[in-house]
Specification:
It is built from 13 helices and ten strands. By secondary structure, it is an alpha/beta fold. Helix 8 packs across helix 12. The relative contact order is 0.17.
């Protein structure tokens, strides 16, 4: 028995030595590839993702994340069609597209509160409250949401909600400045900051002061299909993204440097980027005053869905106004956040 055991030992050692001469094969898990579509050219709303990418948060989470350049095809369409795994979409866009049949699910609140406002030039003494907008001209961006929302604000103030609309897109701000139109909408943390830096004098009405519910203006969305088939990757992506936005809230100067350095061909106004990020932080948009970051409040989401439904601007896939209120709780989930 002793001879047999020695033979087995010698055989085992010989086999071990032979195996040590074989080429080493790596069985390390490949990073999961994730694509994200933007809603506009790079700006401070996107800062958390660029920080997560450039600071290695995505890599640490086992991800290979590609932030797709902005294109004419909306992020919602890209996500719903499977051309992108995640995308930046406006809250009202999510409700509209999901109701019309798009496979979209809200997964992360980029901002905790409404960042939009209605603006007009400071010297317009004939405009003191929303009811004074009756009969005036609005420079808009082409959505039903704008028209119904503004009309509701005017009516909440005792007006009729009747005004003229010209669709100008980003040219609305120039038209407002030169007096070609009477009022428009802007994002306080971007256009609002830009106007302040340039010394443009404006006044504004907040939507929520006139009956419009607060909302998570900007969301990261995915598709139900992607989330069900890639649960681990989705959780890793959203966790690392949340970490990126938290970094932007905690270290704004360094965060601005990272965003600018990674997008030098697009972001050429250093002062605007830093002032915009300061506005996002000072207004508790990225991280709320109670510490909430990324999570969607069910009461906030449901209130906006209810508003859109009652305003009759949600359409089904046939293009008809929906008559039965959808289950808005299915439109979003916090389940993939830490």
């Amino acid at each position: 028995m002793a001879i047999l055991n020695r033979r087995r030992l010698l055989s085992a050692l010989a086999l071990s030595g032979a195996m040590s001469l074989l080429p080493v094969t790596s069985f390390a898990k490949e990073p999961a590839k994730v694509t994200v579509a933007l809603d506009w050219t790079v700006n401070t709303n996107h800062i958390g993702m660029f920080i997560a990418r450039d600071q290695g948060f995505y890599k640490e989470a086992g991800l290979d994340v590609t932030i797709l350049p902005y294109s004419d095809t909306s992020a919602g369409v890209l996500v719903a069609s499977g051309a992108a795994d995640f995308g930046i979409v406006g809250s009202t866009g999510l409700f509209a597209q999901r109701t019309a049949g798009a496979d979209l699910v809200g997964t992360y609140a980029v901002v905790q509160h409404e960042t939009g406002r209605l603006v007009f030039m400071d010297d317009r003494q004939d405009i003191q409250s929303p009811k004074d907008l009756d009969g005036k001209t609005y420079a808009g961006f082409g959505s039903n949401w704008e028209r119904r929302m503004i009309a509701s604000m005017i009516r909440a103030d005792g007006g009729k909600g009747e005004f003229e609309i010209v669709t100008l897109g980003t040219s609305a701000y120039e038209a407002l400045a030169n007096g070609a139109v009477d009022f428009t909408l802007e994002i306080v943390t971007w256009e609002g900051v830009k106007n302040e830096l340039e010394g443009v004098k404006q006044r504004a009405f907040r939507y929520s002061d006139y009956g419009v519910p607060d909302q998570h203006t900007t969301l990261l969305v995915s598709s139900g299909k992607y989330l069900s088939e890639n649960s681990d990757a989705a959780k890793a992506f959203l966790s690392a993204t949340q970490r990126g936005y938290a970094f932007a809230a905690d270290h704004p100067d360094e965060a601005a440097d990272i965003l600018i350095r990674g997008n030098q061909d697009v972001l050429t106004d250093d002062k605007l980027i830093r002032a915009s990020l300061k506005a996002l932080n000072d207004g508790h948009f990225l991280r709320d005053s109670d510490g909430t970051i990324g999570k969607m409040r069910p009461e906030t989401m449901n209130a906006m869905g209810e508003f859109l439904f009652k305003a009759q601007i949600l359409y089904d896939k046939e293009g008809a106004v929906v008559q039965e209120k959808p289950d808005f709780s299915a439109y979003f989930t916090n389940d993939f956040l830490p």
